[in-house]
Amino acid sequence: MDKTAILKKLFAEIEQRTGFSEEKIRNNTAGFAHGPIIDARNEVWGRLHFEFGWSKYALQIEFGRDQRVVRNGLAKWSNKQASAA
């Protein structure tokens, strides 16, 4: 599956469950920087990284985020998955 198809599929799954569009999940504005939108964004990053093998650097480039932000998002998603298991 190519990059575009992976992103389209993943964003559609998450939007159906959370109600957040791809635009809102990708948005960098402060209004979308808290709560459930961050959980949705971390899920996108976590699934891309752990299920599809995307590197942290690829996530930084795709989403225009700092290395620290991506690293912390992946850690939060991973911890949430571990506690849910």
What structural keywords apply?
globular, 73% helix, 85 residues, 5 helices, mainly alpha
Explain this structure:
The protein is 73% helix and 0% strand. The mean pLDDT is 91. It has 5 helices and no strands. It is an all-alpha fold and 85 residues long. The chain has helices at 3-18, 22-26, 36-50, 56-63, 67-84.
What can be said about this structure in brief?
With about 80 residues, the protein is mainly alpha-helical. Helices cover about 75% and strands about 0% of the residues.
Largest sheet: none
Report the order of strands and helices.
Answer: HHHHH
Overall pLDDT score: 91
Radius of gyration: 12 Å
Please identify the oligomeric state. single chain
- Please give the count of helices: 5
Low-confidence stretches: none
**Looking at the structure, what is the overall shape?**
globular
Secondary structure: helix percent: over 70%
Q: What is the distance, rounded to the nearest whole angstrom, between the alpha carbons of the first and last residues? A: 28 Å
- Percent strand: under 5%
The assigned structural class equals mainly alpha
Q: Give the strand tally.
A: 0
